[in-house]
Specification:
With 462 residues, the protein is α+β, with helices and mostly antiparallel strands. The protein contains 11 helices and 22 strands. Helix content is 27%, strand content 21%.
Length: 462
């Protein structure tokens, strides 16, 4: 069995505090026929010194000429791979000693060309968090469009079956740094939040049985042109196509990112409306009324380069008279959001937010979506840190004054697992066809606690 070489791909960038443990976890493997290809992306810490210490001939160490990002770094390592099998391990992750042996035996015995496993999260001191992440027992192309189904450190595939799968480059505009917002930035986001909240308030009167769902999109577009506001979701890059609308309109079992369309709303429907909007813009800078919102490429030039205040909020609406099932799901989801927000205080951790949401929802028999999470906001709509709706209290990044975050629990009546529209790469639905609900507020963490920037009035009254 060990006559088949495994090529282990390890990108590194400023992981001097962790990479020695990662390398040692490879050396400790019971399966010995491997090569470890480390490519460093111009680290500025002591990564080079640590890696150079290892004299094992199975370890290859390469360096980028310039900082290029994780995808390009992994691809460089892949081009050096000689193995019949490819495995991945980031330079701050660890493997159990029997990982390779067990996984190869499993694949060979069952005739599989690709497999992945469950993994456990650890903190920066390598202490277990008792949080286990796993996907479904099987995965197909449709499910692969959902991110986080496969933890990269768990995946292995056959080069004979797939070749060397190159990884898509990550756009340079994507941020990985957490920024604390200034008073000026918070004020700009507050203006954006006030306008967005007024949209949600206006939808309360619009959404009734017999109304065409497309009127939601038309209403938001009209209000944006009247107030000179950019609908920032238009042009967001997706896996297959750029997002073409100002709103996301999720109906019943649709979890998130569903397109608005012509559909006559029925009594008892559950509709979730999500949007990201700018603050009102000076017309001397940009006249939004002159933009053609159907021309995605035209609008994208402005939404991509926008750097002012912005707000992100989703709200759920019961159409007509909701069933008891819909009513209870909405109540639990909304309360879960507020319980999460209450944990967003200086000194707490990201895990405190997720733990509060997860405990409340799961104790009432609901599934908490894992694949889609809250996030930081500003200057772009999706910033670090990610804010999961699940977790362990006392774990994760410590919260600081000046952070602007969204908390957006997506709660399902059945399984937490979701599926994705293969044709567009956007709309997510519950895997079992059950109902899903989402509420989302954007807020800033102050020394006195969280302040909601997308408030529609007195909290818990709307």
């Amino acid at each position: 069995m060990e006559n088949e070489l495994v090529s282990i791909i390890m990108p590194s960038w400023n992981t001097g505090n962790f990479i020695a443990e990662s390398i040692q976890s490879v050396i400790n493997q019971t399966y010995k026929n491997w090569e470890l290809i480390i490519v460093d992306d111009c680290s500025t810490d002591n990564t080079d010194e640590i890696v150079s210490f290892y004299k094992d001939q199975r370890i290859k160490y390469l360096k980028n000429e310039k900082n290029s990002g994780a995808a390009i770094t992994r691809n460089k390592a892949l081009r050096e791979a000689q193995g019949e099998w490819i495995a991945f391990l980031d330079s701050d992750d660890l493997w159990a000693p029997e990982k390779l042996e067990h996984q190869i035996n499993f694949m060979k015995n069952n005739g599989y060309n690709l497999s992945f496993t469950e993994y456990e999260k650890i903190d920066e001191e390598s202490k277990p968090l008792n949080v286990y992440v796993s996907g479904p027992e099987t995965v197909n192309k449709r499910k692969m469009y959902n991110y986080d189904y496969i933890g990269q450190l768990t995946m292995m595939y056959s080069t004979k079956a797939f070749g060397l799968i190159q990884i898509k480059d990550i756009k340079k505009t994507e941020k990985t740094m957490i920024t604390l917002k200034s008073a000026r930035e918070i004020e700009a986001m507050d203006r954006a939040g006030d306008f967005l909240a007024s949209i949600h308030i206006g939808l309360r009167d619009l959404l009734k049985p017999g109304v065409d769902m497309w009127e939601v999109e038309e209403y938001v577009r009209r209000r944006c042109k009247e107030e000179n506001v950019l609908p920032l979701q238009i042009g967001v890059e997706g896996s297959i196509m750029d997002y073409p609308y100002a709103t996301c309109c999720g109906l019943n079992d649709e979890v998130a990112h569903a397109f608005p369309r012509h559909y006559i709303l029925k009594d008892g429907d559950l509709l979730k409306v999500d949007m990201v909007l700018s603050e009102p813009i000076d017309k001397s800078v940009l006249d939004v009324s002159k933009l053609d919102f159907d021309n995605v490429a035209q609008v994208k030039k402005y939404t991509e380069s926008y750097s002012g205040g912005l707000a992100d909020s989703c709200w759920a609406y019961a159409i007509g008279t909701p069933s008891d099932e819909v009513k209870k799901l909405m109540e639990v989801t909304r309360e879960a959001m507020y319980l999460g927000i209450e944990q967003a205080v200086v000194g707490n951790r990201i895990g405190d937010i997720g733990a509060a949401i997860q405990e409340y929802a799961e104790s009432r028999g609901y599934g908490v979506v894992r694949d889609l999470v809250g996030h930081g906001v500003g200057p772009t709509m999706h910033e670090e840190p990610m804010v999961p709706n699940y977790g362990v209290a006392g774990r994760g990044l410590r919260l600081k004054e000046g952070m602007v975050l969204t908390i957006e629990p997506m709660i399902n009546t059945g399984t937490w697992e979701i599926d994705t529209d293969l044709e567009t790469g956007w709309a997510h639905k519950t895997l079992d066809g059950g109902l899903s609900c989402q509420y989302e507020h954007q807020f800033v963490i102050t020394k006195d606690g969280p302040v909601i920037l997308t408030s529609q009035g007195e909290e818990r009254t709307y």
